[in-house]
Amino acid sequence: MTAEGTAARRGRPPRTTGRDLELVALRLFTERGYDGTTVDDIAAAVGISRRSFFRYFDAKADVLWGQFDSEVERLRAALAAVPAELSVMAAIRQAVGAVNRYSAAAVDELRTRMTLVSTVPELAASAAVHYDAWEQVVIDFAARRTGLPADHLYPVAVGRATLATCRAAYEQWAARGDADLTVYLDAALGALAGGFSDDPPAAEVTAVSPAPR
Questions:
Q1: What is the chain's Cα-based Rg?
Q2: Cβ-Cβ contacts under 8 Å for 100 (sequence gap 6 or more)
Q3: How many CB atoms are located within 10 Å of the residue 163 CB?
Q4: What average pLDDT does the segment 18-25 reach?
Q5: Which of the ends of the chain has fewer CB neighbours closer than 10 A, N or C?
């Protein structure tokens, strides 16, 4: 063995990350079911102790929210960068689309994660704090654009309506998987921006082919 190899073996082992735990948990939840997977199972599969798991997450349900929480910060940045001449809803529509462009390799993971969150009661119950953070980013943006306080009815209504509309698009996409996620989001937010007129789009989203990668 070379000196470099000996040094590598004697060195500190690679540090476990929250992302490592997230990926292992997602695999175990898929293989065994959410209820059939324990914190000990996840920790053991990564090679850490149960106590170490709780240094990263407060509960088993929290392990799947890391990527969503990162999206919240990306959405904040995307909204800050939209052109000033765009209307509130046009800006939100553009920013949401920008942060939800996923590579082909990430699509299966995203769909699995969203299916778990929507079908496992414990995960669904854990969603509120994360969805609230996403919603608040939109509320804060709408408040800045209109010069209104963040607790004024208008920005609050914009934030809550946008979140509900995007969740509907996410769930439809996860269930059907017949087009790019951004197609669903853009169609849903376009309908919201148009006030959900009595003349919905003539074509279903399902008629749209997946975007090329």
A1: 20
A2: 71, 181, 182, 185
A3: 18
A4: 92
A5: N
pTM for the predicted model, two decimal places? 0.80
Dihedral of CA 124/126/129/131: which sign? negative
Listing DSSP states for 139-184 in one string gives HHHHHHHHT--TTSHHHHHHHHHHHHHHHHHHHHHHHH--S-HHHH
Instruction: Supply the pLDDT for residue 117.
Output: 86
Question: Which residue has better confidence, 179 or 27?
Answer: 27
% helix, strand, coil for the chain, step of 5: 70, 0, 30
Tokens 């898929």 -> residue: 30
- The pLDDT, as a whole number, for residue 10 is 41
The residue among 147, 158, 152, 154 whose CA lies nearest residue 84 is 147
Torsion of CA 62, 21, 60, 99, to 10 degrees: 20
* 8 Å CB contact between 93 and 45: no
**What residue has token string 């439809």?**
172
